[in-house]
Amino acid sequence: MSRRPSLSEFKPDALWLRMEKWIGFHRTINVFGPYLGAGVKVESVTPDYSAITVKLKMHFYNRNYVGTHFGGSLYSMTDPWYMFMLMQRLGTGYMVWDKSASIEFVKPGTGTVRATFRLPDEELERIRAKVEAEKKTDWSFEEVIVDEKGTVVARVRKVIYIRRLGK
């Protein structure tokens, strides 16, 4: 029988941390199996992790039956970013966990699609204030995936659970 991890154990995996130190964040995430297989690439990351842009090029291995981007690949390109950004920016005194997500497919995606995830300082401070006042919160983020012309291909909504540890 497996035991349930304690709240203090919700932290980055040691292997991920070693790889990030050794080859950097971009290379670490770009060789992550699901992203490597889907063709998802990190395009840019701000030094303070306040913005991350990812892209997905159309390939034979990530097309669906009708020749457009596979919906699972579109979703996966949006999956970890807000959790990761919050973990980096809030630090070790917080537990951050993906709680739920939804995606609305607006238009068939072809070519290269991109999404930029932003966590401005002002929003980070609102999150900190709410967690300090209530000890935990569910925080919603919304982002779009756009094609090469800037047309919205999909809308994604993420809900992240954030809890203060040790208080």
Characterization of the model:
The protein is an alpha+beta fold and 167 residues long. It has a single domain, classed as Hotdog Thioesterase (Thiol Ester Dehydrase, Chain A). The protein is 32% helix and 32% strand. The chain contains five helices and six strands. A hairpin with a 5-residue loop joins strand 5 and strand 6. The longest helix has 17 residues. The two termini are 30 Å apart.
- CATH hierarchy: architecture: Roll
**Into how many domains do the coordinates divide?**
1
Would you tell me the overall average pLDDT? 89
Rg, Å, rounded: 17 Å
Name the helicity range: 25-40%
Topology (SSEs and partners):
Layout: H1 14-30, H2 33-38, E1 40-45, E2 51-56, H3 71-76, H4 81-90, E3 94-105, E4 113-118, H5 121-134, E5 136-146, E6 152-164
Antiparallel strand pairs: 1-2, 2-4, 3-6, 5-6
In short:
This protein has 167 residues and is of the alpha+beta class. The protein is 32% helix and 32% strand. The protein has a 3-stranded antiparallel β-sheet with strand order 1-2-4. It has a 3-stranded antiparallel β-sheet with strand order 3-6-5.
